[in-house]
Amino acid sequence: MDFKIKILPLGPLEVNTLIVSLTDNYVFIVDPAVGSKSPDEYEIVRFLAANNLIPVAVVITHGHFDHVFGLPVLHRAYPSMHIAIHEADREYIGANSAIAQEKIIVNFGLKSLLPSVSNLPDADSLLEDGKTLKDCIAVDNEDVAKALEKWKVIHTPGHTRGSICLYNASDKLLISGDTVFYHSYGRTDLYGGDDFQMEKSLEKISREVSGDTCVYPGHNTCAFPFSGNF
């Protein structure tokens, strides 16, 4: 692989679906943003197949509909692939996903999309603050496990109760979901959002993340250097 992180801007709200290299041809996917009835429904699967990549897991930074559209397509294509999300956002996926998703979708006037995020595949791995992806996702391949160990979970509630960032200190990379944007941060006025929690999460990120880190946000296609200014 000739990339650390590949950005695929996809879906109706142009989410940055990320393909993150691990070792050999193994990768994990962050926030699959396209699903059934989308024009680019199979874009993620096509990219993986064209580059002979093997996804070991899909990691969800938070459960909003635009970040989980692709779960059914990926689950069908790679049934043994792990699905990982924080426990506090688990309500957005699984058999009863429509209940929580409807509370978000109505704010965007996109209720017609609700069937696409109903009865979603459930998580088989839960993300925990301070643990690495190796701790949270069980894999048999020792080299893959070592690569997953480089990525630490930072629980960052505020945008949703279960929002997380992924931090790779050795490679100076931060996957921020909808928590951190360029000189900005995620909205807190939707279901599960909280201003106070967001403030605490941003303080936490500023403490834990090195100033020369490259940030990959959930929207807007360009990664940017972390400055600690929000």
Describe this entry's structure for a reader:
The protein is globular and about 40 Å long. A hairpin with a 2-residue loop joins strand 10 (about 180) and strand 11. A 6-stranded mixed beta sheet has the order 1-2-3-4-5-6, with helices on one face. Strands 7-8-9-12-13 form a 5-stranded mixed beta sheet, with no helix packed on it. It has a two-stranded antiparallel ribbon with strand order 10-11. The model has no long low-confidence stretch (mean pLDDT about 95). It is of the alpha/beta class and about 230 residues long. About 25% of the residues lie in helices and about 25% in strands. The longest helix has 14 residues, at about 195-210.
The helix/strand order is EEEHEHHEHEHHEEEEEHEE
The total of helices stands at: 7
Fraction of residues in helix: 10-25%
The tally of strands reads: 13
Kindly state the mean pLDDT as a whole number?
Answer: 94
**Strand-pairing-aware structural class:** alpha/beta
**Biggest sheet architecture:** 6 strands, mixed
Structure in a nutshell:
Helices cover 23% and strands 24% of the residues.
Summary keywords:
6-stranded mixed beta sheet; 7 helices; 230 residues; globular; 5-stranded mixed beta sheet; alpha/beta
What's the topology here?
Layout: E1 5-10, E2 15-21, E3 26-30, H1 43-50, E4 54-59, H2 65-68, H3 71-77, E5 82-86, H4 97-105, E6 125-127, H5 133-136, H6 142-148, E7 152-155, E8 164-168, E9 173-177, E10 180-181, E11 184-185, H7 195-208, E12 214-217, E13 224-225
Parallel strand pairs: 3-4, 4-5, 5-6, 9-12
Antiparallel strand pairs: 1-2, 2-3, 7-8, 8-9, 10-11, 12-13
